[in-house]
Amino acid sequence: MSFTRFIIKRAVTMFGVLMATLLITIALVGSNMDAILKQSVALEVRQQVTDNKHLVSSFKNPQDLDAFVENQIKQRTDALGLDKPWYYPPRLGLSMYKILTLDFGHAKFLTSDTGSSDVKDIILEKMPRTILLFTTATLIISLIGIFLGALSGSKINSKLDKITSTFAIISSSFPVWWIGMLMIFVFAFVYQIFPARATPLIPVTDPGYIGSLLYHMTLPLITLVLIGFGSWAYLVRNFIVGIMQEDFVIAKRAAGISEKKIIYTHALKNAAPPIITVLALSLSGSLGGAIITEAVFDWPGMGRLYYEAINVLDLPVIIGETYVLTAFFLVSIFLADVLYGYFDPRVRKE
Amino acid sequence: MSFSSKEVWCEFSKNKTGLAGIGILVILFAMSAVAALTIPIESFKEWNDPASWLTFPKSALPAWVNYFLSEKMPEHMILENPQVASQNVDDIFLTSDIFGVDYNYDKFPSDFIYEYTAKYTGSPLLQIWVTRQDGKEFQLISTSLPQSKTETSYHGFIFSTDDSMVKNLRRNQSSFMFPIDSLLAQDIVFSKTEQNTVLQGHYFFKVNLYSVNSKSNFETSKFILGGKVYGLMGTDELRRNLTVGLLWGTPLALFIGITVAIGSVVIGLVYSVFAGYKGKKTDESLMRFNDVIYAMPALPLLIILAVTIGNSIFLIVGFLVLFGWVGIAKVSRSMALQIKTLQYVEAAKIMGQKDYKIIFKHIIPQLLPYAFASIAISVPAAITTEAGLSFLGLGDPTFPTWGQILHDANTYGAAARGLWWWILPPGIMIAVTGLAFVFIGHAMDVIINPRLKR
Asked: CB of A221 within 8 A of CB of A136?
């Protein structure tokens, strides 16, 4: 199978997954969403009719008025297509198409910092902050992890190796958000160094906003790095240990090449494909985990938006966010696949 | 790759971390047994009902902190069985309940509550007085109970935060040498007169019930001095006894973790072995489906499922299994492919054994060691994911887990307010439970993959 065909096949699968996730999301929230929409339409129509004194006084008895209102509501819901259930194919197709083109509609309760209720605006506003925090964290984690992993992989069963492995196992047992709470306790309550809430208090338009955002970012960043680098180091260590047993390494060693050079040039190069794959996966995985972490630190990103949307059941936001998160997730899985396929041709022929 | 259970155990018993894992697990099961035997599940189900926790102190530290402090924090005291006295002058009847208490702590109590059930007709007058060691006597409250023409039992509470009680007490400024107009009721009642520190010694709380024409009395009468320390684990902002929550959280976490792990592994194993054994089109389509679920973002979908379908603990277990089996299926399929080519499987096939018999009798038993290791390894993820969902407020309210305790702690800003006893224990329990299974899984992994030993 050629590389292009491999890429196309993966891309098609990913698109299928995206559609499946979307369909499941709509299936789960569709009926609720319709009920809420109908309610708001009814409320709106009633409001309009009662506001119009002239219209109200033209009816002789309340029954006529009620009938008129009912009729108006029905016309409006029909115009919106709400007379058909959410799974009515043309409606389903339309809503899927809308979401695909990033038209998520308007949020019920939540707004962006600039006051827009368009779900797209809200998400686009929060996205850079989430990416800023989690990409920075993942990059720091992977740098520390690769270095520490290579170091402990070169000295198996040394003190450093044992400490790294133990730390990796223990740190991965603690939920990140719980460590986050502890960090807030230690650095915001006991030693008041960092703020407990990561949302900057000054408005977005202020020139000092970026600086304030970075200062507020420190505590979540430290937490993410602290809990993350151990398992990275462990992973890299295991790759290195595997490679160090390969014949070509033994040959290099026999040729008199220094151990350091073998590890940092030859072994790491061979461990690159899986490491890059894991990097791509953890970049996207961290975005999913962002929901809870951002809720703890009150970081104004996509995760906290999701958390808020659940609390007030703002369905358009939930659908939009699920779509964007899924898309992110799939793009990185796809990238990981492609990179792996590029580095390791064996994968392409399954 | 075949193992007898005896060999596995022999290898396992040499592994120290594995044994440590088993040890922790035994302790956790013992804790579950203690919870089930000592704390009735009914009382635990009222975890989220604030009314059932009224007689507990608010945000009290664990009692053992007193060992580390030079100034002793007051323990929680519930005074029952008061001295009862009654007398009548003409047609006025008086019943008095007198509570005596030695208060020998260095800190003021957090509050006090009088809980009573009074039986009366008419509208009796209820007064509470406190008499102190130094002879000072303050009136705390004077209030009349709701009018009733027939004989009735009235159940009520009087809190130290009551406005009129605070006002009454602040009138005694002349007795104190420092301003008391901004102090709370308990900080005045238990204060020395020259400075605002605790006056240790004996206190009498006298509750008088005056009624006209008919006799009235207290059916129940309880005076609660809110402590600043309580029990083994303290209490939270909503007065709940954290010992109860933490103890009952143990069987729940074990239940969730183990059920999800077993469910996922069994489904994943059967699914993938079937796919691998059948091969060709079946394999291709089954594995494509597996890929689709594998690529779905689990947490957002879990959240949506919990929000729309429901958050009962059994449903959540189901949702977790839904996303848990795919990873296991991927690995066990490749193993099944290897076993399928072994000669005895071929032989069984030629002898005309039915497919399901070959799968369940010949292939799956070979995968059992791997299955047990995966069960152990999947437990922590299940526990932390459930804790995460609970932390977001999507847990089952009738079965509060450790995650929910942390959710409440986060809602009340426990971290930023320094309520460490509310945050530390649940998280440590989650981690320790996870670690126990990681240790066991790791030890089994070493046995199954001898390569890791090097």
From this structure: yes
Q: Which residues contact B189 (CB under 8 A, 6 or more apart)?
A: B112, B130, B132, B138, B140, B169, B203
Whether residue B415 and residue A21 make contact (CB cut-off 8 A), yes or no, is: no
Interchain CB distance below 8 Å, A185 and B406:
no
How confident is the model over A263-273, as a mean pLDDT? 79
12-51 in A: which are within 8 Å (CB) of B? 13-14, 16-17, 20-21, 24-25, 28-29, 32
Residue B224 structure tokens: 């609660």
Q: At which residue do the structure tokens 């894991």 appear?
A: A278
Task: Give the C-alpha distances (Å, rounded to integers) separating B261 from B257, B312, B402, B444.
Answer: 6, 18, 19, 15
> Model-level pTM?
0.83
The residue ranking higher by pLDDT, B7 or B261, is B261
Look at the block and give the residue holding tokens 């709701």.
B146
Distance CA B95, CA B125 (A): 11
pLDDT for B451: 53
Q: Which residue of B has its CA nearest to A31?
A: B308
What ipTM score was computed for the predicted complex, to two decimals?
A: 0.80
Q: What is the DSSP letter of B20?
A: H
Whether A302 and A130 have beta carbons less than 8 Å apart is answered as yes
B98: CB partners within 8 A, 6+ apart = B82, B83, B84, B85, B204, B205, B206, B207
What DSSP line would sit under B225-288, residue for residue? Answer: EE-SB-TTT-B-TT--BHHHHHHHHHHHHHHHHHHHHHHHHHHHHHHHHHHHHH-HHHHHHHHH
d(CA A241, CA A150): 9
In this predicted model, what pLDDT tens digit does every residue of B20-78 receive, in sequence order?
Answer: 999 999 999 999 999 888 888 777 778 888 888 888 888 888 888 888 888 888 888 88
For residues B328 and B18, give the distance between their C-alpha atoms in angstroms, rounded to a whole number: 22
Contact call for residues B414 and A189 (beta carbons, < 8 A): no
* Confidence at residue A350, expressed as pLDDT on a 0 to 100 scale: 47
pLDDT above 70 coverage of chain A, percent: 96
DSSP H or E segment with residue B137: strand B137-144
How far A257 CA lies from chain B's nearest CA (Å)? 23
CA distance B2 to chain A (A): 24
| pLDDT higher than 90, residue A138 | no
